[in-house]
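User: Some background: our group keeps a shared notebook of sequences we're curious about, and every so often someone picks one and asks for a predicted structure to add to the entry. Today it's my turn. The entry only has the sequence so far, pasted here. Could you supply the structure so I can complete it?
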Amino acid sequence: QWHSLTTKAVKATLAGRTAFELPPLDVSTGTEFQQRVWEELLWIPCGETRSYGDIAKNIRKPKAVRAVGGACGANRIPLLIPCHRVLAANRKIGGFSGGLDWKKRLLETEGVSVAG
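Assistant: Of course. Here's the predicted structure to add to the notebook entry:
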C-alpha cells in the first residue's frame, strides 16, 4: 500500500497534478524545528509559492529565515514535502537539494514562473 501510494504521488507530482493521496510520511529523523518547517510546507498548494520568510513567520520563528532554508535542504523527500515551492524573498529561485534545474522544472510543471 505505501509503495503504491508513494509511486502514484511521485508520478502525479512530476505530471503537475494536484489531487493525489500522500502516503504516510515519517519525518521523525528531523529535528523538532525541521519537522515544523516540513509540516508547514505541506500546506503550500500546488502552483503557489512562499518565501523562506513566510515559512519562518508561519511557524512563529520570524528571525529563523536561514534555518528554514536549512530545513528545506535537509528534507529527504522533496517531491512529497514540496520545498521546491519555497523561494527567496525577491522571488528568486534560491536553492534546492535536487539541483536548481529540478526546482525550476517542478515549478514550471506547476505553472509557476520565477526569477533566475
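Suggested note for the entry: The helical segments are 2-14, 32-41, 52-58, 65-74, 100-109. The mean pLDDT is 85.
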